[in-house]
Design a protein that fits this description.
Tetrahydropterin Synthase, Chain A, 5 strands, two-stranded antiparallel sheet, 8 helices, alpha+beta
Length: 196
């Protein structure tokens, strides 16, 4: 099968990945752009998994001040090398994460950062909401679902990305890891609200 150059260009614009990766994905997907995007997304996740343990000691601090000057955000985004830290794609990712923090006001970076006492309080609260007559295994599934919703609202990496709610912030970072071929992590973030 021959791949159309326009399709390669379109796929490249959508994903930010290289020509060879886009061409191979289109070949595997037999020209179907949607399938090719899924193939490339899976590849990005595999690359992110492989890079996960690598040390991140470089990066940028991105600042965002909302137009009303009442909300400000600082985000520390880390990567492996200074070269990648200076790339426009990396700086754009840091800015996107700062926008996410401004819009959603997460309390923690990930589920692992939620204090154990907060988790226990939430479990107790959610258990009160669940019908006592339900079987234990159903109660547990409902409880886990409610906890996942709590994490999606309050943990930055679990949140749906504000510009594409089909992916999480963590998925967005993994996509950039696939493009830039370096480990990327959010170090810290802070959101300030005037008068709060």
């Amino acid at each position: 099968m021959d791949v159309n150059v326009k399709d390669i260009k379109k796929l490249r614009e959508l994903t930010g990945l290289g020509i060879a990766d886009c061409k191979n994905a289109l070949l595997k997907a037999q020209g179907d752009i949607e399938k090719a995007i899924k193939i490339l997304s899976s590849k990005s996740k595999d690359i992110a998994q492989a890079k996960q343990g690598r040390e991140v000691s470089q990066g940028v601090i991105s600042a965002y001040i909302h137009s009303n000057k009442k909300i400000g955000v600082l985000v520390e985004l880390l990567c492996e090398t200074d070269f990648v830290a200076r790339l426009p794609e990396f700086e754009e990712l840091a800015h996107e994460i700062a926008l996410q923090v401004a819009a959603t006001n997460p309390l923690w970076l990930s589920k692992d950062d939620v204090p154990e006492e907060v988790k226990q309080e939430q479990k107790a609260f959610f258990l009160q909401e669940i019908d006592a007559n339900k079987p234990p295994e159903i109660k547990e599934k409902i409880l886990q679902g409610k906890l996942e919703q709590f994490y999606k609202q309050n943990c930055l990496l679990s949140q749906p990305y504000i510009k594409d709610d089909k992916i999480t912030v963590e998925d967005l970072i993994k996509q950039k890891i696939g493009v830039l071929k370096e480990n990327i992590k959010v170090g810290k973030f802070v959101r300030l609200t005037l008068g709060a």
